Amino acid sequence: MTPRKIIxxxxxxxxxxxxxxxxxxxAEGFVDDAKVNLNLRNYYYNRNFLNHTGPSVQGDDQxxxxxxxxxxxxxxxxGYTAGTVGFGIDVLGMYAVKLDGGRGTIGSGxxxxxxxxxxxHAADEFGRxxxxxxxxxxxxxxxxxxxxxxxxxxxxxDGRALPQTFKGxxxxxxxxxxxxxxxxxxxxNSQRNDASLERMSYSGVNTNAFDFAxxxxxxxxxxxxxxxxxxxxxxxxxxNYLQLTHSQPVGDWVLGANLGYVNTKDxxxxxxxxxxxxxxxxxxxxKTGMNxxxxxxxxxxxxxxxxxxxxxxxxxxxxxxxxxxxxxxNERSWAIRHDYNFAALGVPGLSLMNRYTKGDNVRVSxxxxxxxxxxxxxxLAYTVQDGTFKNLNIRWRNSxxxxxxxxxxxxxxxxxxxNYPLSIL
Length: 425
Description:
Blueprint: H1 3-20, H2 28-32, E1 35-50, E2 56-57, E3 60-61, E4 64-77, E5 85-100, E6 113-114, E7 121-122, E8 125-137, E9 140-147, E10 150-151, E11 154-155, E12 165-173, E13 179-190, E14 201-202, E15 205-206, E16 210-219, E17 224-233, E18 237-250, E19 253-266, E20 276-288, E21 291-302, E22 332-341, E23 350-364, E24 369-383, E25 393-403, E26 410-423
Antiparallel strand pairs: 1-4, 1-26, 2-3, 4-5, 5-8, 6-7, 8-9, 9-12, 10-11, 12-13, 13-16, 14-15, 16-17, 17-18, 18-19, 19-20, 20-21, 21-22, 22-23, 23-24, 24-25, 25-26
């Protein structure tokens, strides 16, 4: 499927749904407030497996997972029609093509993998179109369809060539100052390297839907936020999440804290078996000038690793990184991080991040002992500030991860990601 076909399908779908909406005669806002952006994403991924810990491919140890793609992501969002109830349409057209990658280097997550045994290979291209209708009354919005949704208890993953999307419905209300309320259901999941829309699942076990409800209250001049969320993957698990964040200026410093507690148990008929996991975590930051220093602590307990819908991001966890979420059974981990903005040195748009994370106490049933892992991660990023290529962003991510037997693979990894957003409307 070519980029032109993806975009055409998106526009046709949007037009068809738009005709079905009960438009009033005053539809100026639908067009006048519309925004259309096309993001050109070029992604190179190379993971070298060390110490014979990688998967097997073509009957031998896989030395590396390496692929290169070019993506086209069209994000078209209408405004709302005039009247007491405003209506609109959002369209997300996505297409990715393989630039490089062989049968022996599959598994980067950039592309779908087809075939079986020694015939496994990456797709040459894939894409999909997501369309959602929306309606708004006052400060309350209803959205129905498919889109890229990011909620604390259900985070779509946008860490590869194309973003993950969910199909369902969501209500968001901001009627009370400082209070945001959310609720809804998703019953379809299109993962980041899959063109199809599948049922919601955990560990390969399918179910009919994921239900959620949550609220976030900001006060103290919006420096403090308390959030409470509940998610239920029907007949598989139920999850509660409590979060507290605070930001406090102290002289030339800004101190920050992000505290969280997650409790997950099996639900209903327990289609994936007995489940039990708890997470206690805290992230503490200190920013002064162009420097930000961060220290994280994360502790899991229970009989399972962190539990989430298949394919979703682990971004709820404070120690979720490029190579590991440090979310093993009973794992505890800490991290130190430093961010620097080079604007003070006369290079606005350039930033550098370095992070080291260490995890231990991982319950490894195969070896009947506790395991350990560590990761070192660096990201150098630059965003063009003006001129023809304004807003073009280049990121280089370099990382190393080492793990005990049974915890996971040892690897060295490099990623080069270029995003060039173009404003069409």
